[in-house]
Amino acid sequence: MTGLLEKKKRILDDISASASFEETEEKRIKYLSKKGEITLLFEQIKTVLPENRKEFGQVLNRLRNQALELINEMKSKYSEVKSEKIDLTLPGRNTSAGRYHPLNMIKDDLKKIFNKMGFSVASGPEVETEYYIFDALNMPSWHPARKVTDSLYVEKDKLLRTETSSVQIRTMEKGKPPFRIIAPGRAYRNEKENATHTAMFSQCEGLYVNKGVSFAELKGTLKEFFRTLYGKDTIIRFRPHYFPFTEPSAEVDVSCFKCKGKGCPLCKMSGWLEIGGCGMVHPIVLENVGIDSEEYTGFAFGLGIERLAMLKFGVNDIRDFFENDLRFLEQF
Amino acid sequence: MKISSNWLKQYIDFEINSSNIDELVYRLVLLRFETENVQHIKRDYENFVVGKVIECVKHPNADKLTLCKVDVGNEILPVVCGAPNVETGQTVPVAMNGAKVKDFTIKTSKIRGEESRGMICAGDELGLSDNHDGIMVLDEAIKIGTPLNELFGLEDFVIELEVTSNRSDSLGYLGFGREFAFMTGSELNYPEFKIAECEEKTDDFVKIEILDTKACPRYCARLIKDVKVKESPEWLKEKLNAVGLRPINNIVDITNFVMFETGHPLHAFDFKNIAGQKIVVRKAEKHEKFTTLDNKELELNDKILMICDDEKSIALAGVMGSLHSGVTDITTDVLLEVAYFNLAGIRETVKYTNIHTDSSKRFERGIDPNDAEFVMNRAACLIGELGEGKILSGIADAYPLKIKNKIVNLRLSRTEKILGFRISEDNIIESFRKIGLETTKKDSDILSVTVPTFRPDITKEIDLIEEAVRLYGYDKIPEITYSTVSLEPNENIEEEIIDTVREKLKNLGLVETLNKSMVDKKYCLLFEKKPVRIEHPLNDEMNHLRNSIILSLLQTADKNIRRKNEIVNIFEVGKIFFYNEEQITETNSLAVLLTGIRRFQSWNEKESVYDFYDIKGIAESFIKSLTPKVLSYVSQDIPCYFDKDQSLSVYLDNMKIGSFGALSLETAGLFNIKQRIFCFEADISGIEVLLQKSEFGIKDLSKYPKVVKDISVLTGINEKASTIENFIRKTVGGLLTDIAVVDQYKGEQISKDKKSYTFRMSFQSFDRTLNEKEIEILLNKIIHGLKNDLNLEIR
Ligand SMILES: [Zn+2]
């Protein structure tokens, strides 16, 4: 035991005598590494008399802890880094994070959710011919949307698309069913702008054509989508409507996510939010792209991205999205 | 289309009231009738009665007042009256104690010392007219003591419906009533009337000649003689007022009333103004002139259908009559027109003349050709009744080819396939029957449906399927989700690249903007691509499509600068439009714009502004995040809107990826911006090539230590850092793992035409630790080369 105590003194003195960070590290290896002197002493416990073993162990443990403490102390003494008191109340250094535009945030959300539901993303040109915007979509020649002055024409028979529905035709024309796509994009109308209308706006078109696609599945699909977007207790409502390119057609309302259907200013006290239109792809539209409408059926829907964004972020004036005031954009 | 509950009551025995109106409106929505607005009109005359003035004496203390005694049935009231026209013997409306006249409640009071226990009312005080010149005098026949509510009380709900553009039948009370009766489970009753014809025959007075039977399949006329044109009775005026029409005279009012009742427009001509006792239906001639009844001169084209007499045109068919053909106060003989015009022809007229009327609105959607007799007789009967006219017998009816009901087959199996659930056969048959579609069973699957001519919107099986589910109830459609059938995902590479680009730019601290595609032409001209013009722009701010994203960012920068947003660090990825060899082309493009303050002053930093090296840093980091390839940055092919002295283009081999730098002062000036603007632009197609050719491999990392050395070189003021850097790379070869300019010095310690660059170089080997000796040899080689080959001085 006395030998052990002598050894202890020698080892601690030796560590204290280290003259640099590196030398202290060498001492650590010398005494505390796997083959270090102190480590090896532990193996001698077996050779000590049983009645002394407990005490021997305690002294050895103490030695190891003291040595480690001393080594850390010496290291911090020789360390180049010094801890100092600073003013913690000064502001942190600037780093700018960058931001996405709120409309694109919604668009990204839609893509993510619909991707999980098996929809791919499709796109098409924004300058289109009347065929893709009107004729192929069964839009009768007298339909109000066809008034030349209501659309932005750039040439005879060429105009900025009034709906993203034209992507439906482009997609179906290119391949064979089944198709399951969404097409988020810009659409245009020659319209005076106000708090709820802009001449340029964004839509998200959806299309699913396959054998056995039905109106009830359309309702189920949209419900699934809105439950992911607004929460599990969301319900949806179909209202009959007329669109030339779908039949039967419906307008879609979603139960207000703010008041859960009880009525609040957001939903104008109705408990419902108007969110888009949908329906079964009209057989004429399918035939127009050479799909046998007896064999295949399909549904289509269109959601207004600005509308979704206004609801989600509480924006009251649609024009704010295209003003691009940085004070506005930096809030998202 | 306005539906007044009082009017609707005539045909349907169903009470609309305050307690069921909300539910009805909701159920109408489910039946495809959106409600724009519900107006609750209530006129309640509690404590008002009919009285008789039995005595009038001048008020002793006031010149303009009269002391009256008014018999109200069970008592005689003293009333002080201020009206100039009050006289003994008049039957008048009396407001008694407790009655509310406007905001004022009647009670017994003293007026200039005389007791008054009521008030004799003027028309405006009852809300029945605007008249305040004197008290309202009622028909003597009305019994004294009658509560005024029995005469004028009213409760009405006016529901303003939005009827979808494919439905014509619901633009009349009877057509709407069919749906309403179905919805409420009540019966629809057609108005009953008996027509009293005189001996003279219409056919003897009018000949009809249709020159274009395609545009006008049917034309009916009937003559009514010796008519008294006068004001319509209250009940008729009330109905027209409720649907927003201004009463004119009994004849015009009846045609409007019957149009709203049946959905079928009619027209009344003054027979005296019809030359030659003849109606001719023909297309207009090119440049033919026509003056409308509201005195507008039109020049027509040859597609427009006209109603004419033997000499002249008297109406734009289905749209509007001419200035002098209509019914006036002195009209005695009326020729009634009930016709059926082809939808397309009417649309042509409306489109060309831009005249929209209640009549054209109905014809445009298509009305029932086969209810013409009913409509005619209904109107004639009313004219006989209210105008005391003589109805000539028979209808002059030109209907060469009768339009028949359609037969459309409906397969129950197909219905279930489209809907995804089953509606029972009985349910379909029964609900179809209630809205006038008769069905017969063809076989176990097929129903043969007779579609009456009042539903021109139904032509195909799919229309019947929609009808079936609409009547079944959209609220009852089940929600089915199939465990997603997995389809081959459709790759959309461009869309994915756009999203990658957006993410990288955002991660560089930039703010994404979305700008309009439409811009002002004056801005387009600055950019190189030939812009696309918009034909009918709403304003000059959107007369062209943008041919550059920088253009959009400049507009946004200008707006933000004016709003004192001092840090402008924005980007957009989007479409640009231009002519490429006369073809309109649209491509996706990206641009970044920096201007103004980079960092505000803070406790540890001075304020700094953006400069060239910021945009270069963005471009470099952006490209480095996309590809491990080293791209070249050269002063070559710089677009004209950049400042050539402060801009570079980025090349991958021989392909230009993009350009960046300061914009020229002229460019900024055009957008009214006084500060320096730095931009980076690239086409997504170039980025796509960059990504295709780049695969990020994980580089092996050397286990051996890195040695870092600095070297300072004195060069001419115009020497480029990249020349020296490239020289050092070539000289050292593979052992040089990194080189960067860490200092630039111009100033007192060196001559004016010189500058000093300090390069920091990292040396490292993959197979050994480099020793001092090796490093020294390398450094000497560099120094030697710089001195001898590049003629540079080492500091
Ligand atoms: Zn709400």
Summary tags:
heterodimer, A: 332 residues, alpha+beta, BirA Bifunctional Protein, domain 2, 2 domains, 7-stranded mixed sheet, 3-stranded antiparallel sheet, B: 795 residues, Phenylalanyl-tRNA Synthetase, Chain B, domain 1, OB fold (Dihydrolipoamide Acetyltransferase, E2P), Phenylalanyl-tRNA Synthetase, Chain B, domain 3, 6 domains, 8-stranded mixed sheet, 6-stranded mixed sheet, 20 helices, 43 strands, elongated, binds zinc ion
Outline the structure in words.
The complex is a heterodimer of chains A (332) and B (795). Chain A is 40% helix and 20% strand. By secondary structure, chain A is an alpha+beta fold. Chain A has two domains: 2-84, no CATH class; 102-329, BirA Bifunctional Protein, domain 2 (2-Layer Sandwich). In chain A, the strands form two sheets. A seven-stranded mixed β-sheet of chain A has the order 1-5-6-10-9-8-7, with helices on both faces. Chain A has a three-stranded antiparallel β-sheet with strand order 2-4-3. The mean pLDDT of chain B is 91. The radius of gyration of chain B is 43 Å and the shape is elongated. In chain B, the strands form eleven sheets. In chain B, strands 29, 33, 34, 35, 36, 37, 38 and 39 form an eight-stranded mixed β-sheet that branches. In chain B, strands 13, 15, 16, 23, 24 and 25 form a six-stranded mixed β-sheet that branches. At the A-B interface, α5, β1, β3, β5 and α8 of A face α7, α10, α12, α13 and β29 of B.
Helix content bin of chain A: 25-40%
Q: Summarize the largest interface: chains and residue counts.
A: A-B, 82 and 87 residues
In total, the number of strands of chain A is 10
Quaternary structure type: heterodimer
Largest sheet of chain A: 7 strands, mixed
Bound chemical compounds: zinc ion
The outline of chain B comes out as elongated
- Stretches of chain B where pLDDT is under 50 for at least 5 consecutive residues are none
CATH topology-level name of the largest domain in chain B: Phenylalanyl-tRNA Synthetase, Chain B, domain 3
Q: Please, how many helices of chain B?
A: 20
Estimated helix fraction of chain B: 25-40%
Q: CATH topology of the largest domain in chain A, what is it called?
A: BirA Bifunctional Protein, domain 2
Distance between the termini of chain B: 91 Å
Radius of gyration of chain A: 36 Å
According to DSSP, the number of beta strands of chain B is: 43
Q: What's the domain count of chain A?
A: 2
Radius of gyration of chain B: 43 Å
